[in-house]
Amino acid sequence: MKTSRIGFPAALLALAAALTAALPAHAQDKPVNLKMSSWVPAQHPLNPSLQAWADDIKKASNGSITATLFPSEQLGKAFDHYDMARDGIADFAYINPGYQPGRFPLMAGASLPFMFANGKSGSAAIDEWYRPYAAKEMKDIKFCFAFVHDPGTFHARKKITLPTDIKGMKIRPATSTIGQMVTALGGTNVQASAPESRDMLERGVADAITFPWGSVGLFGIDKVVSFHMDVPLYVTPFVWGMNKDKYDSMSTAQKKVIDDHCTSEWAERVASPWADFEFAGHAKIAAQAGHEIYKLTPEQLDAWRKATAPGEVQWGEAVKKAGQDPKAVMDGLKASLAKNKAAL
Length: 344
Hints:
Largest sheet: 6 strands, mixed
Helix content: 40-55%
Low-confidence stretches: 1-9, 11-26
Radius of gyration: 24 Å
Mean pLDDT: 93
Number of helices: 14
CATH superfamily: Bacterial extracellular solute-binding protein, family 7
Distance between the termini: 77 Å
CATH topology: D-Maltodextrin-Binding Protein, domain 2
Shape: globular
Order of helices and strands: HEHEHEHHEEEHEHEHEEHHHEHHH
Structural class: alpha/beta
């Protein structure tokens, strides 16, 4: 039998090579550890969902992809998370596009008032809608999925029932789109990330905030505001984004595992526990002494809808500047909401 120079039969070497090639690709993959950055506090319900997502990736990759989650702005400020994903400070980052006014004009349309009924199927809806646009609008990162929280509203030091009540108030808006609404109604925007918001309210720098219900207690907002408008006013769109270089450095099999976990189905799975938490916050606030939760009359609600309608026109102008047709973009979002039974 013909042998190699180091004494092994050539046939055996060929057989070993064939067997190695037949092994699943991920069995040979180099280990990868992902740094995942979340700016919400450790006890926030989003964090366990992100960890469960990462655990499923570990299982699907036969242990070759592991992840470490860094909550509470350990890797950087909430405002910086898109750039952190772009620059590799984090391999995955929890991004609020609305923290950077004007940078992501298409995504801003998702936080226009009175559109989303819930955060669960609403997350599937926003992901399906935004996915085709992400490659251009968020070209610096690998888009994984988009999602929303359960609808939020005004929480304030005084009762807000009509759009005219906003005039002269200092309000911390959830997104730039809500900020434009506040400005249009005669209010002043106070910029602050969610972790900074209680301090703003406590010091009197802001009179009110737009926030989802459960997070009011989580961030201590319930200690500094007493009045809560009971209406699904808005949602905040978020993106779970990945560093491109990290993705490109992975094997083909590992990339497939990531791609399989960057879907509309996963958007809803990750968002659902948080949505349940926010929804339950309504009852928790109602049970606290010194808080007033109030509904709007049909006439008051109609006044809000009319007063906020011009915001879509303003949003449309920004979309045109980005080279897109605002009617087509908005029609697509509304169709996705209707399809996923998430429309108001």
